Amino acid sequence: MAKKMLAVLLLFCFAPSSFAAVGCDLNDPDRDVARLFPASTNYKTRYLSIKTGGGPELLTRVEKRLGDSFHGLYENIDVPYTLYDIYRGTQTIGYIHGVNQKGEYGGIQVFLALDPAGGIKAFYVQKLTSRAAKNLRSREFGSQFTGLALKDFEGYDPAAAKAAPGSPPAAIKAPVKAGKDFNSVMRAVKKNLILMDEFVFSKKEK
Amino acid sequence: MNVYSIAYKNLLRKKVRTTLTAGGIMLSAWVLATLLGFNRGYQQGLNRDIDNMGFQVLLTAKGCPYEAATLMLKGGTGLRYMPEDVVKTVYANAEVDKITPMLMQGVFDPDKGENGAVAAYLGVDAETFPGMKTYLEFKQGGWFSRNDSYEVVMGFEAAELEQREAGDKLLIPGMDEELTVVGVLKRSGTQDDGTIFLPINTVQKLFKKKGQLTGLGIRVKKDIDMAAFENKLYELPDVQVVSMAQVKTTIMNLVNSARVIVLGIAGIAIIIAMAGVVNTILMSVMERYAEIGIIKSMGAMPLDIFRMIWMETAILCGLGGAAGIGLAFVTARLAEAAVRYFLPYAPNGALIALDARISGFAFALIVVGGLLSGIYPAWRAARVRPLDAIRSEGE
């Protein structure tokens, strides 16, 4: 025990200053959790990453399921993901999870409120710079995602920005002037659902 | 057997008491070394932060000394401006080495969070600003090509938040103009990390502030009379002079007040620890009263007894002091996190700068204090009369 404590203290002493990659947190979790889950009584915050959750193998699996590779300076194995477990009393009634996505004119932060089975209860774009920002953040646009789950997005190809004909994502209407930002939002939703499956739902099944 | 090993073995006879006393000394040494390290680290950090600003004097429009703070507090409005002509006027002074004009602007972005937030942009001169901030390095790309180009350079954190890379587009909320990111800076640990830089003429054009500035960074020549130069600047109409030296002095005065109180507390901790040393050694002398008498009757001189007891104090203080300084190194990061939590302003970089000099000084102070505390018990032991001591044992 004493050796472990000494090791932890030495870690603090000698570890070089490290700067983590930018994560995606709710700006005001108390308010946002109550808004997205009105029946909730409390929540717990967890910090996860592909690096700690499974490393390069998990990254390869996520990229394969996404149908697109992680690219750019900021989409990498180190990115910390914040997961909010939502409770009513002691019962888990859902999850909130957000991802950063590169948009045409700036970063986009897409949060999904999921039920315990992984179905989308609410869609929330916390931050977005776009010519169609107002429409992409509108309730009408967000409501198109309600009830969808990962299986519905399996046929969506983010690299080509195409949904399988007849699949639910194909029915989602892009707002006027949204352009590439609509595709970015769709990719963020699929990535978010895959990460939630890897971090939470597939582990629950096991 | 020499006096050192006798002293060492005497300490081992009462392990718990020795450990507790050494623990008290260790805590005193830890507090002392951490505070001395903080004193140096804070000053170094402050100097670094001010040097990293790239200029020694900041000229702003009167009533607007802290432009970024004003901008955030007033939701992107409330900035005061000064005419661009001031650049020529100030540059005419012989004391000025370099000068760089700046124009900060902010826009309310309703699409940041639930209630929106202010996005700030700093217009800088592509010719003079990089020369002032020589410590800035690029992760990608470089500075703007012209002062009127629609180009952007982003600080590391600003780029990370906006997920921008060189070649990407940036849209200023509420404006229809597209800008191209031409450079992303490496992390510098300064406020520049969160800044979005635009060419100054572009900011003037986009925000309709032609011929206006919010700040003027001035680097002065070496060995000038700073106070006289500042007075000269005060003669300019409607401007305010913010001297970085003044800012530094003000912050250091505030920190020094707190430091005196904390050093006082450290002093009290050392005095308590030393009182513990006196108590422990004196108790040990009293317990060994007869034993000391026997040693003296066997031929030991008072100086030998004095040295033996004094050596016990030295070992106790040496071990406690070394452990305390080691603890200060190990917990420096934790202490730093605590200081950052409690202080309203803490400079970037390491706040607790421990080195061999500080460690040596703290160690010497503890050992000297300990040796002074050990004089009285050692003197009492040296004065023990053999016959009295042996008689008291019999009684």
Describe this protein's structure.
The complex is a heterodimer of chains A (206) and B (395). Chain A is of the alpha+beta class and 206 residues long. Chain A contains eight helices and five strands; from the N terminus they run ααβααββββαααα. Chain A has helices at residues 2-14, 29-36, 50-53, 55-66, 133-136, 139-143, 150-153, 180-205; strands at residues 42-49, 80-88, 91-102, 107-114, 120-127. Chain B is of the alpha+beta class and 395 residues long. Chain B is 55% helix and 16% strand. In chain B, strands 1, 3, 4, 5, 6, 7, 8, 9, 11 and 12 form a ten-stranded mixed sheet that branches. Chain B has a two-stranded antiparallel ribbon with strand order 2-10. Chains A and B meet through helix 1, strand 3 and strand 5 of A and helix 6, strand 7 and helix 12 of B.
Helicity of chain B, in percent? 55-70%
Largest sheet of chain A: 5 strands, antiparallel
Look at the structure and give the mean pLDDT of chain B. Answer: 84
Number of domains of chain A: 1
Q: How would you describe the shape of chain B?
A: elongated
Helix run count of chain A? 8
β-strand percent of chain A reads 15-25%
In order across it, which strands form the biggest sheet of chain A?
A: 1-2-3-4-5
Average pLDDT score of chain A: 86
Q: What oligomeric arrangement do these chains adopt?
A: heterodimer
Walk me through the topology:
The complex is a heterodimer of chains A (206) and B (395).
Chain A: H1 2-14, H2 29-36, E1 42-49, H3 50-53, H4 55-66, E2 80-88, E3 91-102, E4 107-114, E5 120-127, H5 133-136, H6 139-143, H7 150-153, H8 180-205
Antiparallel strand pairs in A: 1-2, 2-3, 3-4, 4-5
Helix pairs in contact in A: 4-8
Chain B: H1 3-13, H2 15-52, E1 57-61, H3 67-73, E2 82-83, H4 86-91, E3 96-109, E4 117-124, H5 129-132, E5 138-141, E6 151-154, H6 156-162, E7 169-171, E8 178-185, E9 196-199, H7 200-206, E10 212-213, E11 215-220, H8 226-234, E12 239-243, H9 244-287, H10 289-297, H11 302-330, H12 332-342, H13 356-382, H14 386-394
Parallel strand pairs in B: 4-9, 6-8
Antiparallel strand pairs in B: 1-11, 1-12, 2-10, 3-4, 3-11, 5-8, 6-9, 7-8
